[in-house]
Amino acid sequence: MQRLILLILMGQSWSITGQLYEYKYMNTPKSWEDARQHCIQHHTDLATVTNMTDMMRLKKAANHIPQTGAWIGLHKSGNSDRKWHWSLPGLEFNETNWGSGESSSPNEYCGAISKNLVWVDHGCNAKKPFICYNETSERFFFIGDTKTWFEAQRFCRSNHTDLVSGLQQLRDGNLEAIIDPEKFSSYVFVYIGLFSDAWEWSDGSSFSFRHWDKNYSDNDKYAMLTETGMLTTNSSNKPFFCYEDHVILINESRTWEEALYYCRHHHHDLVTITNLDEQRWVQEKTKKATTPYVWTGLRYTCTLGFWFWVSDEVVRYKNWASPGQVNECDMSGAMETGGDHKWFKKHDEEKFNFFCSK
């Protein structure tokens, strides 16, 4: 145990918190395909964008977005199969509550709910009331001012967090309380953060973030960031954004100490997760794991009685599975591969895949 504590303390003292990935702006215009090849050869891939914070990071990386716009990694998949997503990033789309005959109607690619909270597919350009969710206040807001689905999404992101999304929010008792039955009877359906499209990220990740300009065309194949900070489509040569990934999943089963040695010898350290955005970035990679859990840089000190990150970060953001898990000596933190990707306290002699930071 003393040797392991010494190993942790002798590790690198700096961390890359908030930099699990970074954006690089390339101002040489290229086609989308050529831009992607450049990014793969010199960095990781064309930029993947996970949320509104990333949109601000892109604009900062470029200093100024040109009038022509700049490519990112969002593109139309070759088979054009549409998939349903949640507007609020980071939510899995698995269990559903569709009404009979819903979810597959042609040209109805946005989701709404009826007064009994059953889901229906709906045309995106129809003007309907909608429900916003505010992550800071954990409150719902029924907006009776009717808008198209994309207008509603932009309104919620500008004034709150996003359109109401995910089963947990839709089953919250407070949601039903804010819905005005009289308004519902007038409009029949109300928009929620549910949409279907055939767009994918070039690196293969399943992030659902979209932030389309009202003039975008669903018939084009490639997406770019405009100077207004919205996404639209085009086909001519553009500057582009690459991203550099600083997290790597190691598909080898090792004890926590072996994983720590490996990361510090071959990369930088076991990964540190300090906020929800970083959690979502890391959990996306668990889809390629071969073990039920994946080691992180979380470690419990039995002597001092608290959890810490080996990068020397304080554990402020937490995503533990159950408060009933007991703290014991020789325990480290692992993220579950499936489910909600919660953190579990595991004996450090168990063998799992692991995340290194680069």
UniProtKB/TrEMBL annotation:
<dbReference type="InterPro" id="IPR016187">
    <property type="entry name" value="CTDL_fold"/>
</dbReference>
<dbReference type="InterPro" id="IPR016186">
    <property type="entry name" value="C-type_lectin-like/link_sf"/>
</dbReference>
<feature type="domain" description="C-type lectin">
    <location>
        <begin position="132"/>
        <end position="219"/>
    </location>
</feature>
<keyword id="KW-0732">Signal</keyword>
<dbReference type="InterPro" id="IPR001304">
    <property type="entry name" value="C-type_lectin-like"/>
</dbReference>
<keyword id="KW-1015">Disulfide bond</keyword>
<feature type="domain" description="C-type lectin">
    <location>
        <begin position="243"/>
        <end position="357"/>
    </location>
</feature>
<dbReference type="InterPro" id="IPR018378">
    <property type="entry name" value="C-type_lectin_CS"/>
</dbReference>
<feature type="domain" description="C-type lectin">
    <location>
        <begin position="23"/>
        <end position="133"/>
    </location>
</feature>
<dbReference type="Pfam" id="PF00059">
    <property type="entry name" value="Lectin_C"/>
</dbReference>
<protein>
    <recommendedName>
        <fullName>C-type lectin domain-containing protein</fullName>
    </recommendedName>
</protein>
<feature type="signal peptide">
    <location>
        <begin position="1"/>
        <end position="18"/>
    </location>
</feature>
